[in-house]
Write a structure and sequence with these properties.
The chain is an alpha+beta fold. It has 2 domains: 3-112 and 228-250, PSTPO5379-like; 113-218, 2-Layer Sandwich (PSTPO5379-like fold). The protein has helices at 3-11, 36-48, 113-121, 127-131, 166-173, 222-230, and strands at residues 26-35, 55-58, 81-85, 88-91, 104-110, 137-143, 153-162, 185-186, 212-218, 234-238, 244-249. It is globular, with a radius of gyration of 17 Å.
Length: 255
């Protein structure tokens, strides 16, 4: 499936699942949409927290067609969205056209699904892709650097990696800084304040097999945690794991 085909399927309600492992070779992105009066503060939040919030594109207020995907519509072309009001999740719709306003500024933020292609090509297993589930994501005890009203905990995604392949996984993902880069932690989850890996805050739990280590990457769901902690009056995001697939190539991001 091409990115255009996937976006069309999402627009028509034919694709409602997470996007891990689809459209190989193409950059996937988290979505954060905020009112214009909060946009500079959020851009500053991203600048101060580049690991969880690497910005791919910022659209002007009211715009819905990103330059990284001509013909796309950010109101309809993601499999699922989340709507927050006053720091509370109030809806998880399939499209947000009826909620759109001319003062909304959209941010597309790099997603770790993009570096899963080179990981898989190098023989690094991806348990959530194998099992057809969403990647597990956790709030941590690590604070982000605040900016204006935005603050909150770092959110991480976790992938079980055979211990012998962890250095390779670190090396590969470290080349992709625009989609979170190298891991922020390897091993004991308690060091991140995560009490139980079987109970992720977002996504689905996956099995950690003998000889594997949990490896944690900064996650683009961090802005959603900031919206909750900051009690932002209104914002729209992607549903965790249900990304916007761009026309950009992953190969262009590596170094």
């Amino acid at each position: 499936m091409t990115p255009v085909e996937l976006r069309q399927a999402a627009r028509e309600g034919r694709w409602t699942r997470p996007t891990a492992g689809v459209c190989d070779g193409h950059v996937q992105a988290n979505l954060m949409v905020v009112p214009q009066d909060a946009a500079f503060e959020f851009l500053l939040f991203c600048q101060r927290n580049p690991k969880p919030c690497p910005v791919i594109e910022v659209l002007e207020a009211g715009r819905v067609e990103p330059g990284c995907a001509p013909g796309a519509d950010l109101r309809t072309d993601l499999p699922r969205y989340r709507v927050y009001r006053d720091g509370q999740l109030v809806a998880e719709p399939a499209e947000v056209g009826d909620l759109w306003r001319d003062d909304l500024v959209s941010f597309l933020i790099g997603c770790s699904f993009s570096f899963e292609e080179p990981l898989a090509a190098a023989g690094v297993p991806l348990r959530h892709v194998e099992c057809g589930v969403n990647v597990p994501m956790y709030r941590t005890n690590r604070p982000t650097a605040p900016a204006g009203r935005f603050h909150g905990p770092l959110v991480v995604s976790m992938r079980p990696i055979p211990a012998a392949l962890v250095p390779l996984a670190v090396q590969i993902t470290g080349r992709y800084e625009q989609v979170h880069g190298a891991p922020v932690h390897v091993g004991e989850s308690g060091a991140l304040g995560i009490a139980d890996l079987a109970r992720p805050d977002f996504g689905d739990a996956v099995e950690i097999r003998p000889g594997e280590l949990p490896v944690f990457w900064a996650c683009g769901v961090t802005p959603q945690a900031a919206a909750l902690a900051s009690r932002l009056p209104f914002c729209i995001t992607h549903a965790p794991g249900h990304m916007f697939v761009t026309d950009l190539k992953n190969a262009a991001l590596g170094r």
